Amino acid sequence: MAATAQDNAIDAHDVYGRWLTEDDAAVITVRDCGDGSPCGTMTWLNPDTTDACRDRANPEAALQDRPLLGLVMLDGFERGEDGWRRGQIYHAERGKTYRALIRRTGADSAQVKGCLAFFCQSQDWTRAPDTLAQSACAAEPGARPADPAR
User: DUF2147 domain: which residues (predicted)?
Assistant: First the structure.
């Protein structure tokens, strides 16, 4: 039986796995939140590009000392026609949370869009490699170690 183009189509909702951010600064591991929607946790920070292991930009002083590793960065999504919508993404460098959309765009790619009012900014994420340099943040007190490759 011949395969059709539809058989090879990417499911825009299949965003689960380990994703390297566009700037190669972090890995976000996306799993099922328990209700079928995706939740993304920061599981790796690039030791060459990251100088903060803690949530220093958070406007709430009580949260500024929490480790970034293990922090939920994406959640609250609902299923849309072409991916997940009406979720939220936390931008640790700015200490702000934005409305978000996430969708799979290829075998090894996903698009994440963060929005403030009508202004949106997109990032293209790629599948994270199985091996990455050890993040200095992993040794921070309270940090959760990075997830295994699978």
Answer: 17-127
> CA-CA distances (angstroms) from residue 89 to 10, 29, 39, 75, 83?
23, 13, 10, 7, 15
The predicted model scores a pTM of 0.85
A 10 A CB-CB count for 73 gives 23
Rounded CA separation 28/26 (Å): 6
Question: What is each CA distance from 54 to 43, 45, 97, 138, 141, in whole angstroms?
Answer: 13, 11, 16, 11, 10
What is the pairing mode between strands 109-116 and 119-127? Answer: antiparallel
**Single-letter amino acid, residue 47:** P
Instruction: Please give the DSSP secondary-structure letter assigned to residue 67.
Output: B
For the chain, which domains are there? 17-129 (2.40.128.520)
**Confidence band of 83 (pLDDT split at 50, 70, 90):** very high
Whether the pLDDT of residue 148 is over 60: the answer is no
β-strand 72-75 against 96-106: which pairing, if any? unpaired
Identify residue 133 by its one-letter amino acid code.
Answer: A
